[in-house]
Amino acid sequence: MLTSYFLLSLLAAAFSSAFAAPSLMGMQRLTSGSSIAVDKENQFLISPNGTFSSGFYRVGNNSYCFSIWFTNSFHKTVVWMANRDKPVNGEQSRLTLNFDSNLILTDADDTVVWSTDTTSVGEIELRLLETGNLVVMNQSQHFIWQSFDFPTDTLLPTQRFLKTSTLISMRSLGTYLSGFYYFKFNDDNILNLIFNGPSLSSIYWPYTLVLSFVNGRNPYNSSRIAILDETGSFESSDGFQFNATDDGVGPKRRLTMDYDGVLRLYSLDESTGNWKITWLPGGRIDACMVHGLCGDYGICEYNPLPTCTCPPGFSRNDPSDWTKGCKPPFNFTCDSSYNSSSSKEFDFLPLPNTDYFGYDWGYAAGVPIEICKNICLTNCKCAGFGYAMDGSAQCYPKTALRNGYRKPDTAVQMFMKVPKSLRRSWLELKSSSELNCSDSELVLNTHVYGEKGEKFRYIVTIGASELIFIGFGWWFIFRKRVNEELLISGKNASNFRWFGIEEEGECTDLVKWIMKSIEKGEVKKVVDPRLKVENEEQNKKMEMLLKVAVECVREDRNSRPAMSQIVELLTCYEQSNLHEDIVRD
Q1: Which segment of the chain is annotated as a signal peptide (predicted)?
Q2: Assigned CATH class of 330-422
Q3: Which of 128, 333, 493, 510 counts the most CB atoms within 10 A of its CB?
């Protein structure tokens, strides 16, 4: 497994290098009428001391963005892009500084993709300053245009952050398109972290249920300005401030709105080219409080790293995008036909230590749980309710289940409203397994957590696949040709009848016999001895496979799980084991 991890790490480094810009000698300035061509490797700008470079940066197959990046960082970390949402072709695209001072980016067909929309008379030039600021300036050193006024996802030291400024995250790791997480001043003059999704928007930091004064913020200011200085100190007009853990002049720094919705301050270790985190909101990673991370119905939890899961029986809407949430195994429309009789068709699925932030439809304290249930049952639009299990008996009926998170110290227990006809057997199987399924990906930038996080990131898919292959191997052994004598007797190589076994003089249904064996903890009795189940871990794997197999052959075909649910469960089981391995390591 470590060999696989090492090879994958090398491949990841090679992939990153392939997408990085060239490290050749660059130009100090671009004069009027000159261009930088995408297919000329030596045509890029470099700052006076070489800290920053600016040119065409490859973001995909034959796709480029005009960018600024740290020259000596290991992955050529990008801090600004002109056309992040409209990449240009890898041939014949160019950036041109016109004689009227307008800086334009054209695609291969001469279509203008981006421009500064500036005009000026006299001699002008384009320079990349040592601060990382790309500027169009005249002979008087006056800035006609500067990139510092139009940040993408990163704020650099000495760069002013104004009321019109916004840091917008990447869509996902390695995808430079604009994402859904914003850092900006709101209309109350307070700096916020905001989830701005396709269908909804919400503030998740600072905590909105606490007054701004309690958070140390002052909304009574109109300047709306903030700045990160060269010592790693950040100050804002709303009173918010922080210092880097390695404060002082020296380290190269950047404040980045990361793709996972967490704002982080980084310092560059120039000896390795790697970044280290020197500040986080609240001084700790609490990514599960980020809104929209796991989509509708999704639940964020730490296993030990932040991952997304779906509630029991639910499945992902998009295997490649957690922000699209989970799909319930039932259809429900709220209309005028919903009445007291309709409410009897529903029940609640308990989700311990789980809560969904926001969308509360009222609030009541000191309410017995049965009354809270009735409040939700009688309201068609109620999707479930949160109930405080700490003795306060607080009831939170909810109209939508978004921004879910699960923590051991969460006093709230979520009760999700589901049809009584929902397949109880499948839910019980999911719940009894005590699995926290996150498919094969984390929701955080795992390099933040060091070597163990990296190890997990690469081996999780391999580990999950291992269990699935074991399952297919089990199936393959049972379908192998056996000798004629065994076929005539109705037995296979494991020496039990395929359509029924004879046990103590009576014929027993195979499925019931397997279920009874599982209940008695006699898994080895069922499994082919050639599989050599020799320890508790292998025994648990086989028990899980048998449980899934039994679900797949239920008499009622509507009660059988879909293939996607089977894969989810098996993958989830192996990932749970991997989490335990990481903790032990």
Answers
A1: 1-20
A2: alpha beta
A3: 128
